[in-house]
Structures are given as structure tokens and as C-alpha cells.
Amino acid sequence: MRRTQTLAVGTALLAFSALSSTPAQAGRADVAGYVRLGMRPDFQGGGGTLGYWNLYGRLLNERAYAALELRYDVLERQALTRDPWTSLHLRIEGGNIQNATPDASLAGFRMSQVFARAGNVLLPDVTWQVGTLDTYFGDLGLYDMRPAQIFFETIGGSARWQTRRIDLLLGFGDSGFGLKREAYNTIFTPGGTLRVRPIDQFEVGVGGMYRYEPKVAGNTQAPYNTPGLDYEDWVRGEVLQQWLAQEPARNEVDFPNPVATDAQSWKLIGYLGFGGFGPVRWNNFFASLERKHPLGSTVETFQGQEYRLYVTGMTDQRTVLTLGDELQLRLVPDRLDLVLAGLYGQHTDLDNTIVPSDDARRYMSTVLRLQTYLTDTVHWLAEGSAAKEVSTNGNAFREHPDSLFANTAGQPDARGLERGDTDTRYTFQGKTGLVLNPLGRGVYTRPSLRFLYGVQYSNQNNAFGNSFVETIDQYDDFKNVERHLHHVLSIETEAWF
Prior knowledge:
Elements: H1 2-21, E1 29-39, E2 65-75, E3 85-94, E4 109-119, E5 126-132, E6 135-136, E7 149-150, E8 155-162, E9 166-174, H2 176-180, E10 188-199, E11 202-213, E12 224-225, H3 231-236, H4 239-246, E13 259-260, E14 263-277, E15 280-291, E16 297-302, E17 305-310, E18 318-332, E19 336-349, E20 361-373, E21 378-391, E22 424-436, E23 448-458, E24 485-496
Antiparallel strand pairs: 1-2, 1-24, 2-3, 3-4, 4-5, 5-8, 6-7, 8-9, 9-10, 10-11, 11-14, 12-13, 14-15, 15-18, 16-17, 18-19, 19-20, 20-21, 21-22, 22-23, 23-24
């Protein structure tokens, strides 16, 4: 598998190299990209990040990453004309970098975007795209997230009509490979977006997509339901055991066959942006509401045998609400900028009311970054964040090494489905340090060379990537340690080109 991925990436690079080396007009080939990597000494045994994820701000919570985007203009766009034009695009990205990640092979990179575009063909001011269709309204920069995004996992075709004030996109494709990988089945995906900018200082956008996976009896990758499944038996891995216990005369060959069904999911997005007046550079507000696509099947092992359980009907009530906002202010012109961002998420699973899960939680966070400009190229950065995560199905977090023995109301429960002694995780982070920006002022000006110190406090024990043991077995060679404060140093660079 790794050799195949490496060969695919290499073949794509050679193909684009051959295209760009053919006789062409100046500017026919274009290369852009992104890189992020650094060194983070951690004397507390951490794994290279200050906390668990970007809910606390992307700074010091992201690992190394690189991306390369190639564009080849087969027929160049002519300015101030409506002549046809077309271009080919390829994006390769991944997180495997020598000495910065555990694995430095090309197998860690993927072709995330491959598509062709053509404009002014059939209809003026319309851009046609065939290939991957990922589209979004903008970035929540401090979190490195795109809450208002559709077609991320879709391949197909789209048409985009753009004027100075209106941007309308309609698309249709298949999300089967993007969602199900090796268990591919067709998932029809229509959708679109509309963004309107009545004045330069204000814009609003809406969009959405619908996913439909049809019922196909006999296709093992299509959606099915195993009759009579109980949710608790399923999450415990005891479906076969409990089914056989109900009637001693039963045997495994009598286990009910799956019943074909269909599967549906959808996503709605919204966007509001304004700025360009007074100290306000720009404010982005994003919203999305998604019904996640159901799972296909899982495998349970009983008495050495594997049994496949089809769970479409038990995973079709999972929704995700996400709200995000980011405000950029110029507090003191050419001296001090401020960026304030907030994120709220609520994950709901109506099928699951008994076990902590990433599909049954809510979280809220705020991040504040100040950047002062000592000179045009030498800046000082200070950032703080506060976050609260709540498990809506009971205790999901361990505050102490012996939390393994505690459950609701502090009562030990060997059969309990909870994982700790609290349903809430609080996390606070602070980061500060020197930033060198050769291209001048700006919070998002790149490239940046950063020398930072970060500290985190969390009520959860060891709330950062690590290799610590969690067992409290008295015979274990390594003992669990209680640690709520974590800090790291970081020497890092980030560049767009």
C-alpha cells in the first residue's frame, strides 16, 4: 500500500513536470504551497503539542505539515476579455517530514485536490470544474478551521457564476470514496453556495449539500440494518452473547440476516463578513449544521469468530452544530493588532443516550491574540485561550490517576460505560514569544519564524499527547503520575508561497 501511494505521488509530480517543461507562454505553469514545522523541547514527556487539539487555538497545538499546489494553464485567461480558458490543478499535502514526525515517507502524503477548470465555455462569466469539488466561505484563522465548508469529500462537476457582487456555485458529485474508502458505495451529492456582497464592507453567504446512498440489495457495501440490535449490547461488544443467551436452543447460524435500506445525510452552512471601517479590519462569522452520514457495518468477535453487524439505523441520528467567529482589529496603527475568535460546537446523537462519545458532547472556546510590532520585521506575540468541553452522556475525563475506579457519584462500577470521574474538561493556555516576519507587519503575514513559550492548565490529568501509562496496576513497571500543568518551548517556521 505504501509503495503504491509513493508511486502515485511520484507519477503525478513527473506528469506536471513534463507539462511545465513543454513549450509554453510565460506564466503558463504556477506553483504554490505551505509548510509548517518546528522543534518543541518538552521536559515533561509530551508528544510535541501543548494540548490535545485546535479548540485551544492552533498555535503550538498543530504538528508539522506541508502542501504543494500545482496549476498548469492549458489555455491562459486573457484579461478584459471573455475568451475561453482552462487550467489543471493538483494539490499534494501531508504531515510526514524528516526529523519532525515519526514517519518521513511519502506514504503520509495524499493527492487531496485534483481538478480541471474551464471558463467562458457555453456561458460567459461561468467557471466549470470537474474533479474534486471542495469549497468553503473562509477560514477561522486562529483555529485553522473551516466551519462553512461543503463538498470536502466529493468528486464530480460544478458551475460557478461570478460577478463583482454575486458568487453562485452549483455542484453535483459522488462522496462514496471520500466517506467510505475501501467500503465504497455510491453516495449522490448535490449542493451549492451563494455569496452576495452588496457593498465592499459587507457580504453574506448561504449554502448546503445533500447526500443520498441508495438501497442496493445484494451489494455488501450498501447500507443495511441488522434486525433487533440493542445499542448497549453493541457498544459493549456483546450482541452475539446476549442474542444466544435469550434462547439456549439458538446457534450462530440462526443470527438474523441484514435488511437492505438507504442512507441520507446533509449539511447547511452560513457566513457573514464585514469590515474595512475604523479599527475593524474584518470580522468573519461562520455557521454549519450537519447530519452526519450513517456508518455501514462493524465487526464483533465472539468465541474466536468474527460477525459483521450492520448499523445504519443505529447511527443515522448524529448531528453537529458549529458556530465560529473571528474579529481582526487594528488597535494602534502599525504598532498593535488584535485578533479575537470564538468557537462553539454541539454534537448530538439521538441513538446514543448511555455512553460518552465524540458524537455526544458540546464545547466552547475563545482565543485572543495580540501582536505588537517592535520594527517592521520584528514582532512580539501574546496569545491566551480558554475552553470548556462537556460530555453529555456522563463522565468522559479522568482528573486523577485513580479516576479509573470512580464513576457517577464516586461509585465504583466495573460494568460502567463511563471513563472517568468528571463530565467536563477545562483547558487554559498561554503563549508568548518573538516573531520574525521578513515581509513586514500583519498577524497572518508569512513567512514567520517564531520563538515561543507555551503553558497549559487542564483539570484533566495529563491532557496532552504523551506516552504515559494509564493503568494503575501495582505490578506495572511504570507508574501513573498526576500532572495538570504542561509547558513547552517552540522554535518553528510557517510559510505560504
